[in-house]
Design goal:
Helices cover 46% and strands 14% of the residues. The strands form seven sheets. The protein has a nine-stranded mixed sheet with strand order 15-36-35-34-16-28-33-32-29, sandwiched between helices. It has 51 helices and 36 strands.
Length: 1459
């Protein structure tokens, strides 16, 4: 029969969805049962080349059994160090320069390292093979009646299982191909990209969980191809059936009935090639089916041949079917063609892995060691050539070659000998160490969350960076806060309902009280004690978190359904609650007893739960957008009534629109209801003013009151949304529906990029919203409570020297209050306070005089560019005028105003009055003042620069930033915001970039200067960016509000590049993923918004407070351990190489080795390899408790170069050289070969001396490691003595095998029998250790560092716990220099305090004129331009006290109840 589409109600809609059948699609195949797509498919690439159909096998492993060896070696030899030692092995094969008789013995340790890395890679790859095979073998039900008839065993059920539906058989996932018709049960994961053709719901929709794909936990609604689904029989399945077998049996019966017509399914499908876009599906389908009994021709239009496929029809591989008994679909993309696999294909290869700061530093130091090696080789070659020239008559040496030739050969010989300078075991040692550290981190019970599990380490190769973090960039919602919303205030029309008392407001109030009473001190509770107290007192949190006052609830119910039920206020309230209930993406799900809401947005969940609490219960959502029906149960004082609406369309939320608009209609399609909610800054411009002057005035007054109330709610720390609505006849929607569908179906093509599509779609959506003529309905205020112990954690982080930035999309007032509650902003930073008795007589005047002095002491810098915004804000201009007009006569002297504006640093203040004319030549009125400011050329860049200049002046006025830290608030958002303008500036690194050929990359002298042309605006922006980051880097904390995800990532990237510091980014949502990837260390919170951030992060856990343990404990340990490991490895390699070099002076640098080649090779790879791994895994410089409770210990670590740096590296290398000199020359002098020391008259030979020196080096190097141990356990002892035992056993083995090495035969036994060798070993081995002990003792005794004192306190435990105030007083010793410096600091502080007191008294003298008072106070305002405008905003209502016209205006919050 002819097929039609049931979704369209007009011919215009039908035409919009028709596709040109003449268009050639890249892919097509015939649809049939049984599936014959493999015989008649046509797949082409973009270039027209045919391609074959792939199977559904997905291989995530890299290797096969037959290519593992070659491919793994290829991978490993991409490491520069492996290539280096491979080259050294090649040199060893060359006879004239070889020191090993042409045997490449360097390949023994290299092979060991390659084997260890290869085994690790093989085990990892084997695990992937097992996963791939298990995934490919997983059975799925495929429809093919003919195959079932010929293979009856294919449908045989296992014991206890139910037989599959009629015509279905089990087929392994790996054998699925395009065109297979497959059935998926509830909670099953889709094995391929499947075109949905039928579902268990009558309207053809299904619910899909995409958490594994995009991290979002909410369910997505997908829909089947209507022209197939509507022609299949329908049988309802009881989804709430508790008996699993009974439910499964009913499901299979429904599937058998629905799939029966598919026997005769014929058709053709044409579609696009596979791509990465998860939301896009382009193609057409034409099929024929027998008409089912459920089919009603009256509900359909004409036939539609070539039905257009949409993204909503595609069920993606890896997602899961939820709340739907079954779906029947057709495999469209299989295996490597699926969208999830296309997204896993990285452009240009795999993504570059992060490298820690130490590893990056080591890479540079390796180049230095290579240069040092080449220099020493050159010295050896020159010395060898000179010696040969001077000893040309030594015929017995057979010096046949020339001195120059000999020098060249000896250069390469010494290159082989000194190859130990580059540690061969560094890479594998670091990998093993960090793997063990990762295991210990993941098993730390202090980072275990009962609901979200333990810490998960996704990438542990940067563990040492955790101990060097200097900047933390944190999201707010879900990261600092719980992201579990509690509904607080409902603004409906001119009324407000609810309570504004929040936990955040309580914290802020408490901190302000403490700031007012500095003498009232609260004892700081140690972190471990706080955690123990919290864990004991922790209580379960409710699911919906709703604590709405009962009396207000009764009042609202009475208004809606009582005597006033027909009033306008009652209608507004009902509309408001209906809006809260259905304007969302929530999916109601019944678990048999209760109704559960599935949502990825905690805000929507809180709003929907509030509506449910007030009797508007969202019951169900059936169908997909355009054809969905939502049901709301209204509880009308005990009488429950179900009301249904049709969802016509949703204009979705994104980070630019910051609003969502839902369009509903009644069931009869008589009218449409447009519901919009979002940020006030984005919804307010869409509001339509009435044509009637009276109504327009009321709407303006209501909007002003609403904005004032939202500002007040934001000051309480509440998150606010503006709500608007409009009702239109259904014909209005029919007129705009085509625009909506066109915008929704926009796709990137040859004429439009993806970004252009987004811009055009937003523009088309906005036109629909503007055409709706929205009216203000109300607003919402929700509290997002702080996570437990977040303020205390941030307080310790700041005290530990870490600078914390909060990057949030919230408005400035909300962000500031959250920041204050989190200890990012201290109350004493904001010196200006609005007095409670501001309305009292004289109070306002006193505030005007004293506010300037208070603002001069402000330590909160605000970068908002308000001077540019001032022109558009009439209210702010009025407030500023009233503040300046102290005589209240409505006129200000021009010279006075010009001086004041100049002092306030308003841009262009000097030229403002040059051409401005007023009615009175000497004074200026309010209206003239407003016109003056609006006519001034104050662009955003100038305004931002004025804020930055004022901030820098304030910063420079503070001498002790540790005692009086400074914080900053910067406003982000759109292109015209402060952060938006700064981020638009050209990249700074482009100025340093130079042009040149490939030769310039090798030799910089070939570089050419690059000419860069910048416009004046670009230059201004570039300078602005430099000034901003210079100021921001000196602030203790920064709060960036209204930030977009891209702005967050940009800020992190800029600070990382500019400062060179280790930056950590932490967030919980998908919008935080960009900044997490940009940071040196990314941390994800497993939160309410899904797992996208946790999947993208290097470390993931459940609560922000775990960052305290991760940084202070594991970060400190890892940084110290890895630093010691790297330095010690270079130290021991330098020891071995230096001994060989010193011996060269006794062997004419001929290449004669002091040590046996095998023994020399085992030095790094075997004898000294294991103990350092044990130390790097288990050593604890300070106990976990001390590190948790003493944040300044972390501050001492992150000081640049404290534990690892170029200076420390060279100190270790020089120490190795000195120790080598002591060992070598002491042993050589003591083992004088001319002395007869054996009973048989023999003297010490070369191999006796070399064995003694080698033994001394091994023992000394091993004992030198004990100096770096801060804790010693039985494991340390086992591996320490075990390594020495292995050395002894191998030495014995090499000495008892004469065929293996004749020179060493029984030498070690002779050495042990010689007292002179023992005495030499003791003397030469102890001297370097005693020297190090002496230097270390002098340093700790006379010049102790803070870390030394902490270690002493931790190990000796000599001071009681009550003195843990993190000062130098806790130590036994306190040097005179430190005491003197401390006293000087106190005297300096007292002097400043006296000066401040004198200045404060002098400002209150009564012998000054009014003008002098104004100028004096404004002079102290000069560095706080932004704060002046904040002050005018805060006292805006009060300043109208001087304005007779403003009397009688009240805030909306004054009328709200329950506050």
């Amino acid at each position: 029969m002819d097929l039609i589409c049931p979704c369209f109600k007009s011919n215009s809609d039908l035409e919009d969805h028709k596709v040109n059948n003449n268009r050639e699609w890249p892919r097509e195949f015939d649809i049939s049962v049984p599936n014959k797509a493999r015989q008649n498919y046509k797949f082409f690439k973009k270039n027209g080349v045919a391609e074959s159909m792939v199977t559904n096998v997905v291989i995530t492993s890299r290797y096969k059994w037959w290519n593992f060896l070659v491919l793994n070696l290829w991978d490993q030899f991409h490491e520069v160090s492996n290539i280096y030692f491979l080259f050294v092995g090649f040199l060893q094969v060359w006879g004239p320069i070889s020191t090993t008789q042409g045997i490449p013995d360097i390949y023994i340790p290299l092979s060991f390292i390659l084997t260890v890395s290869g085994v690790r890679a093989a085990l990892d790859d084997y695990a992937k093979h097992k996963e791939d095979n298990a995934r490919a073998a997983k059975p799925f039900l495929v429809y093919d009646p003919e195959y079932v008839k010929s293979h009856p065993n294919a449908t045989k059920a296992k014991d206890g299982e139910i037989a599959p539906p009629t015509g279905f058989f089990y087929k392994p996932s790996g054998q699925l191909t395009c065109g297979d018709i497959i059935m998926i049960n509830q909670n099953q994961v889709f094995p391929a990209d499947i075109l949905c053709i039928a579902t268990s719901h009558r309207r053809g929709h299904c619910f899909v969980e995409t958490a594994s794909l995009d991290g979002e936990t909410n369910l997505k609604i997908k829909e089947s191809v209507a022209c197939i689904h509507d022609n299949l029989p329908y049988k309802k399945v009881k989804e709430d059936e508790k008996d699993e077998k009974k439910r499964q049996r009913e499901t299979y019966l429904a599937v058998s009935e629905a799939s029966a017509p598919l026997r005769e399914l014929k058709g053709k499908i044409e579609f696009g090639e596979p791509d990465k876009d998860l939301e896009k599906l382009r193609g057409t389908i034409s099929v024929s089916l027998p008409e089912s009994s459920d089919y009603k021709a009256s509900d359909r239009d004409k036939r539609m041949d070539g039905y257009k496929l949409k993204g909503n029809n595609l069920l993606l591989r890896g997602t899961k079917l939820k709340n739907t008994a079954f779906i029947i679909g057709m495999v469209l993309y299989a295996g490597i063609d699926t969208k999830i696999r296309k997204n896993n294909e990285k452009k240009g290869g795999t993504t570059a892995l992060k490298k820690s700061a130490i590893i990056l530093k080591v890479n540079n130091l390796l180049l230095f060691m290579l240069a040092l090696q080449l220099f020493l080789c050159f010295l050896g070659a020159v010395y060898s050539g000179v010696w040969q020239t001077d000893n040309s008559g030594a015929w017995y040496l057979d010096l046949s070659s020339s001195a120059a030739t000999e020098a060249c050969l000896r250069f390469f010989t010494w290159f082989i000998i000194l190859s130990q300078l580059v540690p061969i075991s560094l890479v594998v040692t670091a990998e093993l160490t960090k793997k063990f550290q990762q295991l210990f981190m993941e098993r730390d019970v202090n980072m275990w969350d009962d609901q979200k599990g333990p810490l998960k380490v996704n990438y542990g190769q940067i563990s040492e960076d955790l101990g060097q973090v200097e900047y933390i960039f944190s999201d707010k919602t879900g990261t600092l806060t719980q992201n579990r919303m509690e509904f607080r205030l409902a603004f409906v029309g001119a009324k407000a309902y609810g309570s504004s008392e929040t936990d955040i407001a309580k914290r802020v109030k408490l901190k302000e009280e403490l700031a007012k009473n500095p003498e009232k001190k609260i004892r700081k509770i140690p972190w471990t004690e706080r955690v123990k107290t919290f864990e004991k007192e922790m209580e379960a949190v409710g699911v919906d978190g709703l604590k709405f006052p009962e009396d207000i609830k009764k009042e609202m119910l009475g208004l809606m359904w009582g005597r006033e039920g027909k009033s306008k206020d009652a209608d507004l309230l009902r509309n408001y609650l209906t809006h809260m209930a259905i304007s969302n993406t929530i999916t109601p799900v019944s678990d048999g007893k209760n109704l559960v809401y599935n949502s990825s947005s905690p805000d929507e969940l809180a709003l929907c739960n509030f509506a449910k609490h007030l009797g508007f219960k969202f019951l169900s959502r059936s169908g997909a957008e355009g054809n969905a029906v939502v049901t709301v149960e209204q509880d009308r004082l005990g009488e429950k009534v179900n009301v249904q609406y049709r969802l016509q369309g949703v204009l979705p939320f994104d980070s630019v629109r910051k609003r969502v608009t839902a369009i509903y209609s009644d069931m009869d399609r008589e009218y449409v209801w447009i519901m919009c909610k979002g940020a006030d800054s984005c919804v307010e411009p869409l509001l339509n003013s009435s044509d009637k002057p009276g109504e327009a005035k009321k709407e303006k007054v209501l909007m002003d009151q609403m904005k004032s109330s939202l500002l007040e709610a934001s000051n309480y720390g509440l998150r606010t949304l503006l709500v608007a609505e409009s009702k239109k006849p259904f014909s209005w929607w029919e007129k705009h529906r085509s625009s909506f569908l066109k915008a929704k179906d926009l796709q990137p093509d040859g004429t439009m990029t993806k970004q252009q599509v987004k811009l055009q779609r937003r523009s088309m959506y906005k036109k629909i919203e503007v055409a709706a003529q929205l009216k203000l309905l109300g607003a919402t205020a929700i509290e997002d409570q702080l996570q437990h112990l977040v303020p205390e954690c941030i307080e310790d982080l700041l005290e530990g020297g870490v600078k914390v930035w909060m990057l949030t999309g919230d408005k400035r007032e909300t962000a500031k209050n959250i920041a204050m509650a989190c200890n990012l902003i201290e109350p004493d930073m904001i010196a200006l306070k609005i007095p409670e008795n501001i309305q009292a007589q004289g109070a306002l005047e006193e505030f005007r005089i004293n506010s300037a002095q208070a603002l001069s002491e402000n330590r909160l810098i605000e970068i908002t560019g308000k001077w540019a915004k001032l022109k558009e804000d009439t209210k702010a201009l009025e407030d500023l005028y009233y503040l300046i007009d102290q005589n209240h006569d409505g006129a200000i002297q021009k010279d006075e105003l010009q001086l004041i504006l100049g002092v306030l640093k308003i841009p262009n203040a000097i030229d403002m009055f040059s051409d401005f004319k007023t009615a009175d030549k000497d004074t200026i009125t309010l209206n003239e003042f407003i016109g003056l400011i609006r006519g001034t050329d104050i662009d955003m860049i100038k305004a931002i620069r004025a804020d930055i200049k004022a901030g820098k002046a304030r910063l420079n006025s503070i001498t002790d930033l540790d005692r009086y830290p400074v914080s900053m608030v910067v406003e982000g958002g759109g292109e015209n915001s402060a952060l938006g303008k700064i981020s638009e500036a050209p990249n700074s690194d482009m100025l340093a970039r130079k042009d040149g050929s490939w030769l310039a990359k090798i030799c910089p002298c070939f570089e050419k200067e690059r000419k860069i042309e910048l416009s004046k605006e670009e230059l201004d922006q570039l300078l602005l960016k430099e000034e901003f980051f210079e100021l921001a880097s000196k602030c203790k904390s920064v709060v960036a509000c209204r930030c977009t995800p891209l702005q967050k990532a940009w800020v992190v990237d800029e600070m990382r590049k500019r400062t060179g510091a280790v930056c950590l980014a932490i967030g919980d949502g998908g919008n935080d993923e960009p900044m997490i990837k940009k940071a040196n260390v990314g941390v994800g919170i497993v939160g309410e918004e899904g797992s996208a951030a946790a999947q993208a992060a290097d470390y993931a856990f459940g609560q922000f407070r775990f960052l305290h343990t991760l940084l202070f404990v594991h970060g400190s340990w890892s940084y110290e351990r890895i630093s010691v490991m790297v330095l010690y490895i270079f130290y021991k390699t330098a020891i071995a190489a230096s001994i060989m070099f010193f011996f060269g002076f006794f062997s004419a640098f001929s290449g004669q080795q002091l040590f046996n080649a095998w023994i020399y090779t085992f030095y790094n790879a075997v004898f000294t390899a294991v103990p350092i791994i044990v130390v790097a895994v288990l050593d604890q410089g300070l106990s976990a408790e001390y590190l948790e409770n003493l944040p300044k210990a972390y501050r001492s670590l992150i000081s640049r170069g404290q534990l690892f740096g170029t200076r420390i590296f060279f100190r270790w290398v020089m120490s190795a050289v000195v120790h080598t000199a002591i060992i070598f020359f002491t042993a050589f002098w003591c083992l004088d070969t001319n002395a007869i020391t054996f009973p048989d008259g023999k003297t010490h030979g070369l191999w006796m001396t070399s064995t003694t020196i080698y033994t001394i080096a091994i023992v000394m190097v091993s004992f030198r490691l004990t100096f770096e141990m801060r804790s010693i356990t039985w494991i340390h002892h086992f591996f320490f003595w075990g390594s020495l035992a292995v050395f002894v056993l191998i030495a014995i083995g090499l000495n008892v095998l004469p065929s293996f090495n004749p020179d060493l035969y029984f030498v070690v036994f002779a050495m042990w029998a010689n007292p002179q060798a023992w005495l030499t070993s003791i003397l030469a081995g102890s001297l370097p250790l005693l020297l190090d002990l002496a230097i270390r003792g002098v340093k700790i005794e006379l010049f102790p560092s803070y870390l030394d004192l902490l270690r002493e306190r931790c190990h000796l435990n000599t001071i009681e716990e009550k003195k843990m105030d993190e000062t130098y007083r806790f130590a036994k010793r306190h040097s005179r220099a430190q005491a003197k410096k401390h006293k000087q600091g106190i005297d300096k502080f007292k002097h400043k305090l006296n000066e401040a007191t004198h200045r404060r008294i002098s400002t209150h003298t009564a012998h000054k004129t009014q003008m002098e008072k104004v100028i004096n106070t404004l002079l102290r305002w000069r560095d706080l331009t932004g704060a002046v405008l904040d002050a005018t905003e805060e006292i805006g209502k009060t300043l109208h006290y001087d304005d007779p016209k403003a009397k009688g205006k009240n805030s909306l919050l004054e009328d709200k109840k329950g506050i």
